[in-house]
Amino acid sequence: MADTPYAVEMKDIVIRFPGVLANDHVNLTLQKGEIHALLGENGAGKSTLMNVLAGLYKPSSGMISIHGETVNFNSPKDAIAKGIGMVHQHFMLVPTQSVTENILLGLDDPKFIMNLAEYDKKILALQDQYGLKVDPTAKIWQLSVGEQQRVEILKTLYRGANILIFDEPTAVLAPQEIDDLIQTMRSMVAMGKSIIFISHKLQEVTAVADRLTVLRKGVATAEGIRVAGVTREKLAELMVGREVVFRVEKKPQKAGDVILSVEGVSAENNKGIKALNNISLELRKGEILGVAGVAGNGQSELAEVITGLRPCTGSIKINGEEVANQRPSKAIKSGVSHIPEDRTKVGTAPNLTITENTIMKNYGDAPIGNGWSINFTEAREYARGLKKAYDILAPSVRTMARKLSGGNLQKVILAREISSSPKMMVAVQPTRGLDVGAIEAIQTLLLDQRERGTAILLVSEELEELLSLSDRIAVIYEGEIMGIVDAENADINEIGLMMTGTKRSEQ
Amino acid sequence: MNLPFSIRFEKRTDDVPKWLPAATAIGSVVIAFLISGIVLAFIGGEPLRVLKFFFEATFGNWAVFSDTLVKATPLIMIGLACSVAFKMKLWNIGAEGQFYAGAFFASLVVLVPLVPPDAPKVITLGAMVVMGMIGGAIWGFFPGFLKARYNVNEIITTLMLNYVAIFWNNFWIFDKWSDAGFQMTPTFPKTAWLPRLADLAREYPVFSGITLHVGVVFGIIAAVIMWWVFKRSRWGYEINLIGDNPEAARYAGLNITRNIILVMMVSGALAGLAGMSEISGVVHRLQEKISAGYGFTGIIVAWLAKLNPFAVIIVSILFGALIVAGREIQPAGLAYLLQGIILFMVISSDVLLRYQVRIVRKEQETV
Amino acid sequence: MNFEIILHSGLATGTILLFAGIGAIFAERSGILNLGVEGMMLLGAMAGFSVSLSSGNAWVGLLVAMFAAGILSLAHGLVTIHFQADQVVSGLSLTFLGTGLALVLGEGLTGQNPPLIPDVSIPLLSQIPFIGPVFFENHSILVFVGYLFAPLSWYYIHKTRPGMHLRAVGQKPSAADTMGISVYGVRYFYTFVGGCLAGLAGATISLSVSPGWYSSQTTSGQGWIAIALVIFAQWNPLRAALGGYLFGAIRRGILDLQGPALLFGFANPLYVNSNLGFFLQMTPFLLTIVALVMGSRAAARKRLGSPAALGVPYVRGERGH
């Protein structure tokens, strides 16, 4: 073993961004033909480290060698030339171009005039070799998320990559699709490729990887240890730095009257394609209804039609009052609060202060609103109260929202949405991208609301989260509800089947 | 290039020092003057003499300073008009047309006439103010409506309406209300003139020949009101929120359609008021070329003032001076050039507000 | 009112919009919105006119015009690509800068007579009835260049490798970046190309279609119309060419309305009162608004959009790309 050089050897890598030390003297070695997991919480510096290997960033210091040869990447092109390919978490695909065009992007061949039909054939041949099927002439925006991921993989294979980096590849997939992906990875390793697999999910890591490296806040807490023989608890501790409670406490509670009733609702997405198809569901007081599904199956649109942000057909009643196709202000007045999917693009205004962000929905109400003016002294007082109550870490309430971390930004949103004492809450991916501490805090806040009798519609792609928080779980696939199950004795396999399009009754 | 150090731009993580925005604005103007001087020298001019002339012709004595303020007056109002629109990221570059529309509508008070010719001065002037603002607001409404309803790019529509307003004006001054075939209307009666300091020359001889008129007071009042709107009002908060993140504003239940139209109308009304002030305070009739490009200079004023209403007043005085001097400085395009360079410098210098410039020694980098 | 003349003149004036519009399409396809077209055109018109005069060769003038406007556009490139300044404001300041430079450097050019780009007829093709006289007879060489340029531009954008890279950078710069395409390089290049074409459009006016230097009147707002044309054309060079020609023809047709004393057998009001001509002069600008509304509605209906990254500065590793 000692004679064969490592496929990848990264030594003492330091990556510094202004104000942040993203990686602090990290070592990582990848042997030829192994799957090496890079484990860590969100924001631990995993992607940053891999972006260095892919030539996107230059390290502040440290050394990288590929197959024993010291390298110095100046651009992704250099990394690609050394056989490194990265499958990004947020797909790096041009939505308006075809599969073939995306695969050819950045290559020197074809030189000038493209004869795409000829390359379509080459790509079909490559697909056969690895069992990754996707129509080469289709435009990216027409493909499902799983197909898009295949394009990302094909992109690296077409370039002859033998070192593949998968950045959180399972985050967007249904359980069965995850199994397929793992199969693909195994067969690639069997063909002599080496794989680095980035994840924050313990069970996947232990199922797939040979060895692993754990990052915590930019520091490696484990470097290349064998997966066999390490317990999940130990891994969690390496990742988070303390013991982790896996399940938040949910008190048994009887659901009350119907607050929200959705009947026969259909809607289109931004591309004009049908995203919701005749959806009906009910939500009761003091109940959390989880919505499970693979990303892009209509969850976002469902949240938007309920909160008045998207037009639809059908009926949506809150406490018996019709809110479908009204202004968003109508839903707000009916007591619906909304934790939006995208906290920076929708939930907050980046260049406004914490104060201005917390009064977004009540700036017109006394004592903050005062006739035509706003009493900013009152507003700041109000914001200070929320900052304290929700433990928002920031220098002051005059701090701009864009300077807050993801977790603190989410707390600002929750503080605003909960303080209106809502009858109903629509929470979309409330914990995505947060570290364990913040996830716990947010989940506890949601359960508190449930105890206070708020009806909560919780959209999440993390099955674990849905199972631990929800009372019932509705599974959505291509804009249709495949079935609704009790969370208490739900069968993950059954949910997984529904997530890929099998109706409950058909099983 | 193998320098022993490298210059690095790093994203600011701390707050911008309070003095920096003002410093970059002033620095931009100084550098713009320097560059224009170099261009002037290059084409065979004498920059220092032009500079000396510039100061003498604009700030040299009370009479010329008054001229500077007279030119600054419409700029204040148009600078405010642009500020309110830009706050909401609405690129109203149609202030020129809204200025003409304001002037035209205000003239209707006298030309139609809308108030009896022997009405008291207050009534006539009051009606002209109202009509001027309505005219500008109408000119602002169309692009606002098209933007809000059909998402039509307001940059183009406002700009196209500039041309329309000017041709529209031309028709009336060439045709219906032409003064004996000249391309202007007859002079307005004195009741339609805004009071000037020169009117007080009989009592206070110092004011003789001082052309400064009440319009500047309009500008200052408008600045105070806009300051209150931006800093203290509910509507100002809505403008800020929509301007910073329209998605968030929609999510928070704000009516964006209504606000786009409203902001464009207010912006137009301010520019229309400037048009009224110009014909009532300076020209005293409707004619061709009543604007010295105020509508476009106002854009630069607003930007250089960082959309702060009080800074708009100060910047307007500088640009008023440029216009006064520009009439006499040759070649004629120099004032334009200077404005272009100033604006370029301002937006380039904004990079200093977002990034920190660090000079790093080469050895340090590898540690 | 002669249909043949209107179309012939529409093709000539449309060529101006064709060059400026396709230039803007190239820049916008890469993600750079440059509102400074009017300023760049004016600088090109001035530079072309002036250099043709001093060098005695209109083609040299044309090349210098393209180069001058191209260099000017790089100022916009620097400020928006490297400094990530707002593209709208930067484009506006480029308008001022270009106009100012053109007026300062163009002092004393009015009334001069430099050599112009020659008009030619295509043998044989010009013999075809109707089509020949309209399309192939007595046109500036630049009009014929335009005939070829629009389809070639379309082919380049959609069917070639650099065209594919251009589209990728404008749609999803991060994807292009990770595949080793230099986003900044592509954007600088096409900003420059856009500038050069705006300069060519300007020189097309001053050296060919309506020769002369009339200070800021030379371009009279056509740069802005070109920007509107891009939206109307949905970033497609062929549609931009058709739109340009159509616009030119309508513009000429409207002006011709003033000529005859009788219109459809009635006294022509425009002939009786020439002041009504001001309303005719308004129409191109109103038409631009109408075209823009139509373009925007079509885009909304077909859910076509501008290049996704248009107007958005690219910073590696930032959200939202």
The average pLDDT of chain B is: 89
Biggest interface goes to: B-C, 46 and 50 residues
Structural class computed from helices and strand pairing of chain A: alpha/beta
How far apart lie the N and C ends of chain A? 50 Å
CATH architecture descriptor name of chain B: Orthogonal Bundle
Low-confidence stretches of chain A: none
**Rg for CA atoms of chain B:** 23 Å
Could you tell me the CATH topology label of the largest domain in chain A: Rossmann fold
| Structural domains of chain A: how many | 3
Written overview of the protein:
- The complex is a heterotrimer of chains A (507), B (367) and C (321).
- Chain A has 507 residues and is of the alpha/beta class.
- In chain A, a hairpin with a 2-residue loop joins β14 and β15.
- The longest helix of chain A has 16 residues.
- The model of chain A has no long low-confidence stretch (mean pLDDT 89).
- Chain B is built from 14 helices and two strands.
- Chain B is 68% helix and 4% strand.
- Chain B has one domain: Orthogonal Bundle (ABC transporter involved in vitamin B12 uptake, BtuC), CATH 1.10.3470.
- With 367 residues, chain B is mainly alpha-helical.
- Chain C has 321 residues and is mainly α.
- Chain C has one domain: ABC transporter involved in vitamin B12 uptake, BtuC.
- In chain C, 69% of the residues lie in helices and 2% in strands.
- A two-stranded antiparallel sheet of chain C has the order 1-2.
- In chain C, a hairpin with a 2-residue loop joins β3 and β4.
- Chain C is globular and about 70 Å long.
- At the B-C interface, α6, α11 and α13 of B face α3, α4, α10 and α13 of C.
Short description:
With 507 residues, chain A is an alpha/beta fold.
Q: What topology does this entry show?
A:
The complex is a heterotrimer of chains A (507), B (367) and C (321).
Chain A: E1 8-17, E2 20-30, E3 35-40, H1 46-53, E4 61-66, E5 69-71, H2 76-81, E6 84-87, H3 99-104, H4 116-130, H5 145-158, E7 163-167, H6 175-190, E8 194-199, H7 202-208, E9 211-216, E10 219-226, H8 232-240, E11 258-268, E12 274-284, E13 288-292, H9 299-306, E14 313-318, E15 321-322, H10 328-333, E16 336-339, H11 343-347, H12 354-358, E17 369-370, E18 373-374, H13 376-389, H14 406-419, E19 424-428, H15 436-451, E20 455-459, H16 463-469, E21 472-477, E22 480-486, H17 492-499
Parallel strand pairs in A: 3-8, 3-9, 6-7, 7-8, 13-20, 13-21, 16-19, 19-20
Antiparallel strand pairs in A: 1-2, 1-4, 4-5, 9-10, 11-12, 11-14, 14-15, 17-18, 21-22
Helix pairs in contact in A: 14-15
Chain B: E1 5-11, H1 20-42, H2 47-59, H3 62-87, H4 95-111, H5 121-150, H6 154-174, H7 215-232, H8 234-244, H9 246-251, H10 256-283, H11 294-304, H12 309-326, H13 334-354, E2 355-361, H14 362-366
Antiparallel strand pairs in B: 1-2
Helix pairs in contact in B: 1-13, 2-3, 2-12, 3-7, 3-10, 3-11, 3-12, 4-5, 4-6, 4-10, 4-11, 5-6, 5-10, 7-8, 7-10, 7-12, 11-12, 11-13
Chain C: H1 3-29, H2 37-55, H3 58-82, H4 87-105, E1 119-120, H5 131-136, E2 139-140, H6 141-159, H7 161-171, H8 173-178, H9 183-209, H10 222-232, H11 237-256, E3 262-263, E4 266-267, H12 269-272, H13 277-302
Antiparallel strand pairs in C: 1-2, 3-4
Helix pairs in contact in C: 1-6, 1-9, 1-10, 1-11, 2-3, 2-4, 2-9, 2-10, 3-4, 3-9, 6-7, 6-11, 10-11, 10-13, 11-13
